[in-house]
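Cross-posting from the modeling subforum.

Setting up a comparison between two proteins and wanted a second pair of eyes on the formatting. Protein 1 (sequence, then structure tokens):
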Amino acid sequence: MQSEKIIIVNENDEEIGFKNRDRIKRNDIYRVSALWIENSQEKVLMAQRSFKKKNSPGKWGPAVAGTIKKGEDHDSNIYQEAEDEIGLKDQIFDKAHKTKTIGSHKFFCQWYYLKIDKDIDYFKIQEEEVEAIKWIKKTDLEKELKSNPDKFLVSMAATLRKFKKFEK
């Protein structure tokens, strides 16, 4: 199976080329889309990455996230990823903020937001990508991020702070 072509960008998020996913290096910068989902009970939908993932296996992060591939933009990517990863379709996401992450990976992330009241059984996870999902109260998430930060993607504390300010 041929590796997917990932869009590579410069420090200003300008497209400069493509690379096979398996050839991405530490200094490459790419684009990601992510979806933050909340419900009316002040809970956030979290997804645990599959333990089979190469990067950050088993870590908890946003409900949906995906790397932008050749021929995609942020919008097309996030709607496809939401349907593929958690079975979410026929929803309209609000475009939120864009972040830049510099760590073991470098990427620009376009965030999206959705407020929806659905039981956990409503969602259908894609097992190759997602190990588990759960609703968690924002206050409990804050405590968990402080006491067990290694369970989460490194960007989760900053992401929670950003979305505490994002009201719909």
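Protein 2 (same layout):
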Amino acid sequence: MSKKNPKGLKNWAIFSGIGLQMGLIIYLGNLLGVWLDKKFETTFLEETITILAVFGAMFSVVYRINKFNANDK
């Protein structure tokens, strides 16, 4: 019987967490945009803040992957 690789399981947990974090950042950015649109009676803040949240989430993913690769060496 082969032993399970705990490092592989840890890597899986890290990468699944990254996906959840990305989704949460985008979702919260969208909610903030909707709230601000209602508060200021505008129509452009939802899309603008959601796009900024997407870029922020992508930056977060790239940062964490780079950090993961630097620690893995």
